[in-house]
Amino acid sequence: MILEQIIQAVRECGEMILQADRTQAAAEIKDGQSNNLVTKYDRAVQEALRDKLLEIAPQAHFVGEEEDVHESIARGDAFVVDPIDGTTNFVKDYKCSAISVAMTHDGTQEIGVVYNPYLDEMFYAQRGKGAFCNGKPIHVSEKPLQQGLTLFGSASYYKELVDDSFRLLRLCFDRSMDIRRSGSAAIDLCTIAAGRAELYFELRLQPWDYAAGSLIVREAGGSVTRVEGGEIDLTKACSVLATGTGADPSFLRV
Ligand code: 2AM
Ligand code: CA
Ligand code: CA
Ligand code: CA
């Protein structure tokens, strides 16, 4: 079964994150931005994933965050991979990062796997077959936001979005019990999928941040759209809003 094979590959690569030599985790700056980091482990995990995943499905395209050129996922099978989601956390040894792998067919997610090696939590979903964490079915929360938690990503690396992010965050803060910020979009999406929080938003993410997690949320019964409404788009960066069944996010759109 391809799902089990992907899970096995991701689990093995999770071990690379846990075993990383902290003295070797020197961060380089990406795209000339001081808060945009990459380490040799981002590249090493991605290379290991590429080898393992293309052995499982040699016909598939491979799209990874640290890849220089991004192939199209529009036709056929493709893997959309974030080797370490939460690189800043990894560099800080904050112990909140994940591996995110989606498999798509003709541009639609068929399989999503997100692994948090620090908690040994393996989240996965197959389209139409429900969502699971470590073998147990998971479901989103039914609670209204007033009895819930808001998760957000600050999109701090897109300066033009910061004012809007914090304006929306304030709206959520006033309507929920409290707010949380993990630093990993993939973990945030799985936190919604597992019913541990009620609403998550971030104003700009890349496809590898949400390709797997968004399928897991939907298969857990939740909703994933853009913040402004409309479908998320796996071919480019977009905003992401994920909710359980009890949270009404319409206040974010006025
Ligand atoms: P990353 O760690 O894989 O880069 C945090 O708000 C979320 O945004 C993380 O999932 C992080 O993924 C993602 N992100 C995307 N671009 C980023 C950047 N330039 N700097 C920091 N986080 C970024
Ligand atoms: Ca990421
Ligand atoms: Ca990453
Ligand atoms: Ca990154």
UniProtKB/TrEMBL annotation:
Q: Which PANTHER family match?
A: INOSITOL MONOPHOSPHATASE (PTHR20854), INOSITOL-1-MONOPHOSPHATASE-RELATED (PTHR20854:SF4)
Required co-factor? Mg(2+)
Keyword vocabulary terms for this entry: Hydrolase, Magnesium, Metal-binding
Q: Cross-referenced InterPro entries, in alphabetical order?
A: IMPase, Inositol_monoP_metal-BS, Inositol_monophosphatase-like, Inositol_monophosphatase_CS
- Lineage, top-rank taxon, reads Bacteria
Family, per entry: Belongs to the inositol monophosphatase superfamily.
Q: What start-end ranges are recorded for coiled-coil regions in this protein?
A: none
Query: What is this protein's name?
Result: Inositol-1-monophosphatase
GO molecular function per UniProt: inositol monophosphate 1-phosphatase activity; metal ion binding
**What Enzyme Commission number(s) appear in the record?**
3.1.3.25
Pfam hit, one: Inositol_P
Identify the residues that bind Mg(2+).
Answer: E65, D82, I84, D85, D209
Q: Does the keyword Magnesium apply?
A: yes
- Which Gene3D superfamilies has this protein been placed in? 3.40.190.80, Fructose-1,6-Bisphosphatase, subunit A, domain 1
